[in-house]
């Protein structure tokens, strides 16, 4: 890696690890605290600040984790979009408890979220879908996400089919594609510090009220 880039990353880590993370410095609502950290991640020009891992659990009790993009922050939680018939969609139908993780290694920060998930309204999914690039809209129709296919040619043929089908008209949102919101019940903010004496502040929600505490690294 270029030495200038390494020096920049090291300076950035020192800058962020030097910021206090304690009960007095954080906001009282974890969504608002997330927004502060997210803005700092964007301003630091991280490659994919929107990327988050999401862990679901199947009806058989098998956990599964993958990376998706967070596409919205609301007062109630974090929004993402997917195919409802995908493996994750089937997991969510069977078990609405999920875990998220945002990891911003350049800043030595991660945010761990536990909560429950529910579908957002069809109208809200329509609004987001209509803003997507046309190629992505076609892809939502062409891909039977998580299902086996013979080869890539089969996928490309589906893309060609739906490209022709919706030629000259707006691409409608498929009924099997839309958004979810993860409503957190527990959120942990982790800030790397020297000598592995990291800061960990945990928010816990009970009776619709957030409380926070520090835990040992």
Task: Spell out the CATH superfamily.
Answer: Electron Transport, Fmn-binding Protein, Chain A
Measured between the Cα atoms of the first and last residue, the distance is 30 Å
Question: Please, what is the average pLDDT?
Answer: 91
C-alpha Rg (nearest Å): 20 Å
Broad CATH class: Mainly Beta
Shape: elongated
CATH topology name: Pnp Oxidase, Chain A
Number of beta strands: 9
The total domain count is: 1
Task: Write the H/E string, N to C.
Answer: HHEEEEHEEHHHEEE
Largest sheet data: 9 strands, antiparallel
Q: Could you say what the CATH architecture is?
A: Roll
Question: How much strand?
Answer: 25-35%
Helix content range? 25-40%
Poorly predicted segments:
none
Number of helices: 6
Structural class: alpha+beta
Task: Please render the helix and strand layout as text.
Layout: H1 3-17, H2 30-43, E1 51-57, E2 63-69, E3 72-74, E4 77-83, H3 87-94, E5 97-104, E6 109-119, H4 122-131, H5 134-142, H6 152-165, E7 177-191, E8 199-206, E9 209-214
């Amino acid at each position: 890696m270029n030495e200038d880039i390494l020096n920049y990353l090291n300076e950035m880590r020192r800058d962020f690890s030097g910021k206090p993370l304690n009960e007095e410095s954080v906001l009282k609502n974890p969504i608002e605290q997330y927004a502060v950290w997210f803005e700092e991640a964007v301003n630091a020009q991280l490659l994919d600040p929107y990327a988050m891992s999401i862990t679901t659990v199947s009806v058989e009790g098998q956990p599964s984790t993958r990376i998706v993009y967070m596409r919205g922050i609301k007062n109630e939680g974090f929004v993402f979009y997917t195919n409802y018939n995908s493996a994750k969609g089937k997991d969510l139908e069977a078990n609405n408890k999920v875990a998220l993780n945002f990891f911003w290694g350049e800043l030595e920060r991660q945010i761990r979220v536990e909560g429950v998930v529910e579908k957002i309204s069809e109208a809200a999914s329509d609004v987001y879908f209509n803003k997507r690039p046309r190629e992505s809209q076609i892809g939502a129709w062409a891909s039977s996400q998580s299902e086996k296919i013979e080869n890539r040619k089969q996928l490309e043929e589906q893309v060609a089919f739906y490209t022709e089908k919706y030629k000259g008209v707006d691409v409608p949102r498929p009924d099997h594609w839309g958004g979810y919101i993860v409503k957190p019940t527990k959120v942990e903010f982790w800030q790397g510090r020297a000598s592995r004496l990291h800061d960990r502040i945990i928010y816990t929600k009970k009776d619709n009220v957030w409380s926070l505490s520090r835990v040992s690294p």
